[in-house]
Structures are given as structure tokens and as C-alpha cells.
Amino acid sequence: MTNSATAQRVSVIGLGAMGTALAQALLAGGHQVTVWNRTAARAEALVAEGAVLAATSAEAMAAADLVILCVLDDPAVREHIEPAAAQLRGRTVVNLTTTTPEQARSLGAWALANEVDLIDGGIMAVPSMIGGPAAFVLYSGATAAFDRFRAVLELFGRAEFVGADFGAAAMYDLAILGGMYSMFAGFQQGGKMVRTTGGTAAHLATLMAPFLQAMTTMFAQYAPGIDDPDNYVPEQSAEFTASALGTIDKAAAESGTHTELFGVLLRALPGI
Ligand SMILES: NC(=O)c1ccc[n+]([C@@H]2O[C@H](COP(=O)([O-])OP(=O)(O)OC[C@H]3O[C@@H](n4cnc5c(N)ncnc54)[C@H](OP(=O)(O)O)[C@@H]3O)[C@@H](O)[C@H]2O)c1
């Protein structure tokens, strides 16, 4: 619980599943929370917990030193933020709406032109994880503003600042999700393959999960090959990787479950 000396005035715009979880974490942290949602009824539970409901998004923005946006997408952000430039001047805005890096940079340029301190964020959690030990949130943009409000932002989960480039948090966020979906694609393909032997995807899941978890320790070894390729000596030769992927691709073909997946990996993974 934050004591009144450190309590901040924070507004949350957007009370979907995620915005509601963020507002609850702020209330639990002892902050003065103003909320606004397009569908006002979604604010009722938060008001019962102590939040103040603003009549308009601009009113909510004017009520706080720290404004948190968590709406559907970039157009929804722009719809509310651009007409409120006067209310936002001199304030800090943290946009936790998922956007592309270029959308974040464009919003960053708008913020600089309007004297708003913008921090863009990417939430690496589902709403039920907010405030818990496994949640973390990526931030980028206005560095001094991030330092100023870091303690508030830590209420959502570990706060990880990834650079002054407004697009950095979105890029890291989407890079991590790209890794996740690549892994899911491998599981989908593998599940189909083992079923042709009488096995099940459920059994494969119990075997693949701990193996992949152990393999994530290899990321740190492969990173120099991306960060400093000129001086990198691959752990595996390109031939070894090509041979392994070729064998896996052949097994997929033999099982009649062939997809393009392993051919794509072969092109994406030279010597690692
Ligand atoms: N849920 C997750 O697990 C998760 C994880 C990471 C990041 N995020 C990101 O967090 C953001 C919100 O996600 P969510 O899960 O809270 O989604 P959600 O439950 O579908 O809520 C969407 C919110 O956006 C509002 N909205 C949509 N269009 C709007 C507009 N034009 N003007 C004003 N408000 C508008 C909705 O208002 P109404 O109530 O009036 O419809 C609602 O408050 C998204 O960008 C999402 O990618 C979510």
C-alpha cells in the first residue's frame, strides 16, 4: 500500500479486461485513480472500489499527472488523445495499447510536438497476471518520465525499460510474441506427426514442454551471432542445422502431415 505522501493522481482510459486489471492494481497500490470507459457501465466495479469516474476521456486526462491508455488499438488511442492535446501538455502518458513500432513512433512524434511525455508500453501478461510475480511490462520513450513514475508502473509487474526509441517496446513485445507463435507452430506440426504413430499431442506436450524450456538457455549463446555476426563462431555449423531440419522435414513428409514450416525454418536459421 502506497502512503498518501507518495500517492499519485493516475487516470486509466479504457476499462476492458486489461484496463480494469491495471486500474485495480493502482487502487491496491493506494493511488488516486480516475477512470473512463466508452461504455460507462464497465466502470461500476472500480468506482465501488474507490475510483472516480470521469464524464469524458479528456476530463480523465486532465485529472491526473500520469495517464494510462489501454484501449483496443492505435486508431482508438488517436481518437481520444489528439483532441486532448491541451489537457495533456506537461503530463506523462503511458500507452499500453498494443500497436506496431511505427504507430508508437508516430504517436511519439505527436507527443513531442505537443509537449507530452510519452512512454509506450507492451504488456507481457494476461489480465489475471497483472501485479503478480510472472508479469512484466516493456516500456520505451520518455526516459526521465519513466524514472519518475517507475514505482507506480511496477505495480503492474516488473517494469523493463528497453530504450528511448518510442517503437522499441512494441518491437520487443512483437519479437517475443513472434517467438511464442513459432513455438506453437512447432507443437501443432509435431502433434500431427506423433498421431500418425498412434501417439497423442497430449503426451507430446508433456515431453516437449520441459525440453523446450531447457533449450531457451541457448538464446544467450546464439545472441552474439545476431548482435555481432562478424566475430561470431557458430555453435552448430550451417551444414549440421540444414541436415537436422532436412531430416525433420522428411519425417513430416513421410507422416503425410507436411507443411511449409521446416522449409521456412531452414531459410531462417543459417549457422546457429
Ligand atoms: N487482454 C490481454 O491479455 C492483453 C495482453 C497484452 C496486451 N493487451 C492489450 O491491451 C489492450 C486492451 O485489451 P483488453 O484485453 O482490455 O481488450 P478488451 O477487453 O476487448 O477491451 C477493449 C477496450 O477498448 C475500448 N475501446 C475500443 N474501441 C474504442 C474506441 N474507439 N474508443 C474508446 N475506447 C475503445 C473498449 O471500450 P468498450 O468497453 O466501450 O467497448 C474496451 O475498454 C489491447 O491493445 C490489447 O492488445 C491485452
Automatic annotation (TrEMBL):
It holds the Pfam family NAD_binding_2. Gene3D superfamilies: N-(1-d-carboxylethyl)-l-norvaline Dehydrogenase, domain 2 (1.10.1040.10), NAD(P)-binding Rossmann-like Domain (3.40.50.720). SUPFAM superfamilies: NAD(P)-binding Rossmann-fold domains. It comes from the Bacteria. Residues 10-159 form the 6-phosphogluconate dehydrogenase NADP-binding domain. Residues 165-264 form the NADPH-dependent reductive aminase-like C-terminal domain. This is Oxidoreductase. It comes from Nocardia rhizosphaerihabitans.
